[in-house]
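In the current project phase, work has continued on tokenised descriptions of protein folds. One protein thus recorded appears below exactly as we store it.

——
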Amino acid sequence: MHTRRIAFLAAIALACVVALSASQAPQPARASAPIYQALDSVKNLSDASFAKVVAWAKQGGPAVFAPVWDYQQAEAGINGLAASQRWAMLQWLSGNGRGALYAQGVTNSDIGRNRPGADYPVATPTPDPWRQVQFATDTFDAAPSGPIQVSAGIAGAKRDGTSIVACVTFANTAPQAATDILFAFTIKDGNGDTVGTMRLDRKGTFSTGIGIHTWDSYASWRAQSGNRGYNDNCVKKESGVAALPILEARFITYSVKSVTFADGTTWAP
């Protein structure tokens, strides 16, 4: 009986020692409140706003004056941190990993999901081999077009100078159908000087007042999003090697050179 009591007391003593040791074991350090607030402001940003903060961090985190947008407010919050916390935030945002933040006592849960630019590289988009060329009239007045009303157009040139394209949206305003419309496009440089010409001989049946459409924007033409028949209203000139008129092209103007109607009559300016 005496032996059992001793064993029981020893067990209690051992449990007390273990509990005391556990309470005295070093606990992971937790960061101060400001860094959690800064992390929350960054965590809630859209990818577009986050990208702005990443770009700012890679510039060294310059001062932010009168912050208005959410990304500016996040940047100002980071700049208001203690030096070591600010440095840890900039390290992460600059793509140098989360180690410096972990050392501050924060966890992945505090930081949030992996973000492009900080936790992994942002994919570099393939450069567009084309550039937009402004479609315009020569003067404030509409270009000579007679019974053909031109309502829109787009143009683009390859950056390497090997191809140029112009597209037009139009309608026949004559009382009878047209069957052949000859468009002329003038390529101009940045000074407005003519450097080349193109022609589109558009054949078909074009009834009175019916819009004949091409792409509604340069972007939709590049994406080829829409009716593939829109390309029927485009003319393209290509060169095996770079052509100076294409390299210099900044504007494309238009005019209508002739119209043939279903009854065989014609119009010319």
